[in-house]
Amino acid sequence: MAALLFLLLLSISAVHADEGPYIGVNIGTALSAMPSATQVVALLKSQNIHHVRLYDADASLLVALANTGIRVVVSVPNEQLLAIGSSNATAAAWVARNVAAHFPTVNISAIAVGSEVLTSMPNAAPLLLPAMRFLQSALVASNLDKFVKVSTPHSSSIILDSFPPSQAFFNRSLDPILSPLLRFLQSTSSPLFLNVYPYYDYMQSNGVIPLDYALFRPLPPNKEAVDANTLLHYTNVFDAVVDAAYFAMEYLNVTHVPVVVLESGWPHKGDPSTEPDATTDNADTYNSNLIRHVINSTGTPKHPGIAVPTYIYELYDEDQRPGALSEKSWGLFDSTGLPAYTLHLSGSGLLLANDTTNQTFCVAREGADPKLLQAALDWACGPGKVDCSVLMQGQACSEPDDVESHASYAFNAYYHGMGMGSGTCYFSGVAAFTTTDPSHDTCLFAGRYFNFFSSVIIEHSIIMPYCCINCST
Ligand SMILES: *[C@@H]1O[C@H](CO)[C@@H](O)[C@H](O)[C@H]1NC(C)=O
Ligand SMILES: *[C@@H]1O[C@H](CO)[C@@H](O)[C@H](O)[C@H]1NC(C)=O
Ligand SMILES: *[C@@H]1O[C@H](CO)[C@@H](O)[C@H](O)[C@H]1NC(C)=O
Ligand SMILES: *[C@@H]1O[C@H](CO)[C@@H](O)[C@H](O)[C@H]1NC(C)=O
Ligand SMILES: *[C@@H]1O[C@H](CO)[C@@H](O)[C@H](O)[C@H]1NC(C)=O
Ligand SMILES: *[C@@H]1O[C@H](CO)[C@@H](O)[C@H](O)[C@H]1NC(C)=O
Ligand SMILES: *[C@@H]1O[C@H](CO)[C@@H](O)[C@H](O)[C@H]1NC(C)=O
C-alpha cells in the first residue's frame, strides 16, 4: 500500500518535474479599451507573470509573447470545436497556424480545447475527444507533443456530491465521454484542467459554506471540515474541490492524471444587494491566500506536497462581458494597467501587483459591533504586542476617545508591524482595508510616509485566534 502510494505520488509529480508550483493568469479580451499586444506583454513582464492562458490563439498576442520566456496555454474557442472535431485536416491546419508557426519562440505549453464544453455545450460533447485526438496527432506529426499538451477545461460542477471529497464522482451521465477522455489524458501525460470557483460554491450554498472557508481564512478547529472516510481535514473549499476531482477520477480507475486549475478567482465588485461578497477586500484576500497556498507547494490533503498549478481569472476587468456587475469585475488590473487592488503577498517571495500607492491602511470596519471591536482592540494591545501607549489619555491618539478610533489605530499598527501580511488585517472580520490615510492632528498612522514593511519576509504571521471573541462575551 505504501509503495503504491509512493509510486502514485512519483508519477503525478513527474508530469510537472520540469517546473515547481506556479501561478498563471488568464487573459480575457472583452474590454472596450483592450490594451495593445505590446502593452499586455509589458504588464505581464512588469508583474513577473510567467504563465498565461489565452482564450484563443490571437496572432498579434502570440507574436508579442515571442522570446519572453512566458509559457502560454492557447485555446480552441467553443465555436471552432465542431470544425476541428469533425476533420483531421482542420485540426492539423489549426496546429500548423496557431502552434507550430510560433513554437519555440513562443513557449506554448498546452492547447485548451473548448471551454467547459460538457456543461455549456452538451450537444458538442461527443466531438470533444475526437477534436483532442486530432490535435494530438497533429502535434505528434510536428514533433511537438513532448512540449505541448492537449486537455480541456471542465467546470467543477461536473463533480457531484463533492463533499466529502472521498465520495465525489463525476455526473454519471457524462461517464461515456469522460472515461475515455481521462484515459486519453493519462496516456498522453496531460493534466486535467479544472475551473474552481469557491465564490460560486459559497454563493450557491445558501449559507452552508462559511465565507472564511471559501477565502482560505483560518477556521476554528470545530468548523474545519473533516472527511469521515479518510479523516482528512479540509481548511478551504479550493482543496476540497481539487481532491474531489482526484477521487472522482479514481472512481473511474484513473490515478495518474494531475489536476491543473485553469481558472480561479474572486470578483472585486458586484451589485451590493445581490452580490454583497464581491468586494475588493474579499478578492484581495482570496487571491492573495490562493497564491500563497499554491506557491508554498502545500498540495491538497489527499496529495500533500503535490503542486496544483493555478491560473487566476483574470488579468483585466472585462467591461464588455454581459451579465451581473461581478461578471465584469474579476480583473487584477483595469485596462490602463492600474491594479484593482494590491495583493498582499509579503512572504511568498512573489512580486505581483506591487503596492504602487504605498497607502494601504487597516482600520475598524464601518458598523462593526463595538463589543467585538473592543475584544479585538484588547487582543491587539495585549497578545498582539501593539504599543498602545499613544491611546492613553493625553497622548497623541487618545482623541476621539471611542472604541472605533482606538481599534483603527491598533489594527493598523499591527497590520504594518506584521509587514502587511495576508490575514493580518482581519481581526475576526471587524477590520477592513482602506487607502485613505486615517492620520489626524498629531496622531500618525503607520504606513503614512512609506511602507518599508511591504518587502519584509514574514515566516509565521500570527493570526488573532478566534477565542478572543468568545473569551470576552
Ligand atoms: C516591486 O517591489 C520590489 C521591492 O520594493 C522591487 O524589488 C521590484 O522590482 C518591484 N517589482 C515591480 C514589478 O515593480
Ligand atoms: C519553455 O519553458 C520551459 C519551462 O520553463 C523550459 O524548460 C523550456 O526550455 C522552454 N522552452 C522553450 C522552447 O523556450
Ligand atoms: C490525422 O492526421 C495525422 C497527421 O496530422 C495522421 O498522422 C493521422 O493518421 C490522421 N488520423 C486520421 C484518423 O486520419
Ligand atoms: C448530469 O449531466 C446531465 C447531462 O449533461 C444533465 O442533464 C444533468 O442535469 C446533470 N446532473 C446534475 C445533477 O448536474
Ligand atoms: C475499475 O476497476 C475495478 C477493479 O479492477 C473494476 O471492477 C471496475 O469495473 C473498474 N471501473 C471502471 C469504471 O473501469
Ligand atoms: C507552507 O508550508 C509549510 C509546510 O511545508 C507550512 O508549515 C506553512 O504553514 C505553509 N504556509 C502557508 C502560508 O500556507
Ligand atoms: C513609496 O515608498 C517608497 C519608499 O519609501 C518611495 O521611494 C516611493 O516614492 C513611494 N511611492 C509613492 C507613490 O509615494
From TrEMBL:
Q: How does it sit in the membrane?
A: Lipid-anchor; GPI-anchor
PANTHER family in alphabetical order: GLUCAN ENDO-1,3-BETA-GLUCOSIDASE BG1-RELATED-RELATED
Q: Where does this polypeptide localize? A: Cell membrane
Keyword annotations from UniProtKB, A to Z: Cell membrane, Disulfide bond, Glycoprotein, Glycosidase, GPI-anchor, Hydrolase, Lipoprotein, Membrane, Plant defense, Signal
Taxonomically, the superkingdom here is: Eukaryota
An annotated GO BP: carbohydrate metabolic process
Q: Does the keyword Cell membrane apply?
A: yes
Query: Is Disulfide bond one of the keywords?
Result: yes
Every copy of the X8 domain together lies at 360-445
Q: What is its main location?
A: membrane
Which residues, if any, are the signal sequence? Answer: 1-17
Q: Offer an example of a GO molecular function term for this protein.
A: glucan endo-1,3-beta-D-glucosidase activity
Reactions catalysed according to its record: Hydrolysis of (1->3)-beta-D-glucosidic linkages in (1->3)-beta-D-glucans
Which Gene3D superfamilies would you find in this protein's record?
1.20.58.1040, Glycosidases
Protein family (similarity comment): Belongs to the glycosyl hydrolase 17 family.
What protein does this entry describe? Answer: glucan endo-1,3-beta-D-glucosidase
GO cellular component terms attached to this protein's record: plasma membrane; plasmodesma; side of membrane
**EC number(s) on record?**
3.2.1.39
